[in-house]
Write a structure and sequence with these properties.
The protein contains nine helices and ten strands. The protein is of the alpha/beta class and about 260 residues long.
């Protein structure tokens, strides 16, 4: 039996029961047809892109996945819009910054984390070999970088035309998006419907979407299909119940149950 809405603990237990748990694999959802966990290889793609309309549970999904991925020894950095992550970050000993607040301490801590991982990687003489690089990355403690409401913090401040992100922080995020898999970094990005319309600053949202695993939350696939998956009309308009969504890969869509805080 699979509950309609379930959390990280249920996913982890299910994956371990089936013998699929390993350091690089993230059980991110339950495949509805088979009732087995959907396992995402974070060394193949270190980004999970969660897309959907406002109110479809994206933040709850990101929190469940962050708690599942970080474990007991990892670190979590959360960049959000507003204060809905503030209490969660405090309870989970996570670094938190809002687009509306001071980002200096957050940027400094993230920079220190990046430097330590770069130094660790360079201590291994064969770190440029792909197979060896993978093993080195798996030896690092997990670093989870949560980017919630990504379409909002990429906007410009209306009053001055300046970006919401400080320049150094923007550069760090760009490095994490491009090379994070080599440094044990997992990016969990949540994006609303407005993020897929109009001009995209530096194509950041498109990089997250195209370079990551795709999870869609919404009422129907028509409401949440930025991947332009080619599906029959009846499938595109198939209504989802609470906790349901889609996993998208190479325009192939799988009906899944998405995790949430419970």
């Amino acid at each position: 039996h699979v509950p309609e809405i379930f959390g990280a603990e249920f996913l982890e237990q299910t994956a371990r029961k089936l013998g699929k748990a390993s350091p690089e694999m993230l059980p991110a959802a339950i495949v509805q047809q088979s009732a087995q966990p959907l396992m995402l290889d974070l060394m193949e793609k270190h980004i999970v892109f969660v897309y959907g309309k406002h109110g479809t549970g994206k933040t709850s999904i990101l929190r469940a996945l962050a708690a599942l991925r970080v474990g007991e020894e990892g670190a979590v950095f959360v960049l959000g819009a507003g204060n809905e992550w503030y209490s969660w970050s405090r309870d989970h000993n996570a670094q938190y910054a809002s687009i509306d607040g001071d980002q200096k301490a957050f940027t400094s801590a993230l920079d220190d984390e990046f430097r330590s991982r770069l130094a660790f990687r360079k201590t291994h003489a064969n770190y440029t070999d792909p197979a060896a690089a993978r093993e080195i990355a798996l030896k690092m403690k997990p670093l989870v970088l949560v980017l919630d409401d990504v379409e909002r913090w990429l906007e410009q401040r209306r009053e001055h035309g300046q970006p919401y992100l400080e320049r150094q922080l923007s550069q760090l995020l760009g490095s994490a998006i491009a090379k994070g898999a080599n440094y044990g970094i997992c990016i969990l990005a949540g994006c609303g419907a407005s993020g897929m319309t109009g001009a995209l600053p530096n194509n950041t949202i498109r990089q997250l979407k195209d370079g990551g695993w795709g999870l869609a939350a919404g009422n129907t696939l028509t409401d949440c299909n930025p991947w332009n998956a080619d599906l029959p009309y009846s499938r595109e308009n198939q209504a989802m119940r609470a906790g349901e969504g889609f996993y998208v890969r190479n325009e192939t869509v799988t009906h899944v149950l998405l995790p949430a805080e419970v």
